[in-house]
Amino acid sequence: DRFMEAAKFKYEVGMRDFVNKPCHNWGEFLSPKIALSAFKLDLLSNFRSYVAKYFKDQRLRTLMEFPVIFLGASPKDIPALYSLMNYGGYALGTHYPKGGFFQLVLAMQQVAERQGVTFHFDHNVDTLKIEKNKITSLGINGVDYAFDLVVASADYHHIETLLTKELRNYDEDYWKSRTFAPSSLIYYLGMKSSIPNLTHHTLFFEHPLDDHIDCISGNTKWPHTPLFYICCPSKTDPHVAPAGSENLFLLMPLATAISDDDETREKYLIKMLERLEKHTGTKKLYEQITYKRSYCVSDFISDYNAYAGNAYGLANTLKQTAVWKPKIRNKKVHNLFYSGQLTVPGPGVPPSILSGKIVAKEAIDLYRKT
Ligand SMILES: Cc1cc2nc3c(=O)[nH]c(=O)nc-3n(C[C@H](O)[C@H](O)[C@H](O)COP(=O)(O)OP(=O)(O)OC[C@H]3O[C@@H](n4cnc5c(N)ncnc54)[C@H](O)[C@@H]3O)c2cc1C
Asked: Which CATH code is given to the segment(s) 2-92?
């Protein structure tokens, strides 16, 4: 309870005073209220020693540390502030929109359309045309479209490659020097029969967390004893698989910029299914597969232009937080803004949406001034 109370405090202060800042400079954080709460936010303590203060049982410690794997660094390098994620996931709860997460995307699309937004799907921005330090038009699928202002929400590094070198906020050395959050190996499976003893969400962390994390952010390689997550939405949602069968989503965090040929992917599918068999007391799950699709590092690069195939942006280390994240505004092209997981406040669906809100305010201010 004491751990969750402290995590709740961090969550509430973080949501109220931190995540909505454009982070142009540290002056934004100078307020008596923030100064008073700074100590209790545990910005300078590391996640591992912080969790150890509250929990003795190693299983509970690992349970609390597990979400950190998606932040891209060892719990000993992540500020204890991020225990706010434990409060979000375990105390506020993990929710599932009926029909899957895509329903939320469709709902947001409807809200935006009601407010006058027009979506153009399958349109690729190939070029940015710039005159006198302003974007005048975007080349989209080979056609030029004029714009007053651009909020670029694709991968930050990718957008910058569309600019000439002198107009970029960051050079290649900058990106190489960053610590990235992981990429992932994902499997989407259809299984022809029901899997007993399995719930909607299952985390597999029977092996040491640090061995896997070292393969992501230290000595990068495919992990020997991977930790992973399995989602079986058909356990609670009858619409995602035919009756009597199962829909499985397997997610294994993996280093960015790693080779991911089909043979290696398949090897890890078998490893994960063996662990699932052991956990559920089932056998020969591989033979139950009726649909199989994998997604990995090279797919993130080819489909999303994601730098080195990253799936979750930059790791949330202290040196890559707030003002030290890539800036939301281009320093030389006055009407170009950046949003999404590689800028403030950071990776994840809620922060990426918030970055859009932060940028919208900045963009409206600029538009009113000009
Ligand atoms: C498997 C997985 C599980 C996750 N689970 C969670 C979770 O449980 N909770 C959570 O909070 N977060 C989760 N995340 C992270 C979260 O999904 C991301 O942080 C978030 O979606 C990033 O949003 P974004 O807008 O920055 O980027 P994206 O959602 O990647 O959007 C960028 C868009 O830009 C498009 N684009 C790229 N280049 C161009 C171009 N040249 N022209 C036009 N369009 C272009 C891309 O196609 C893409 O649609 C997960 C991520 C993955 C991969």
From this structure: 1.10.405
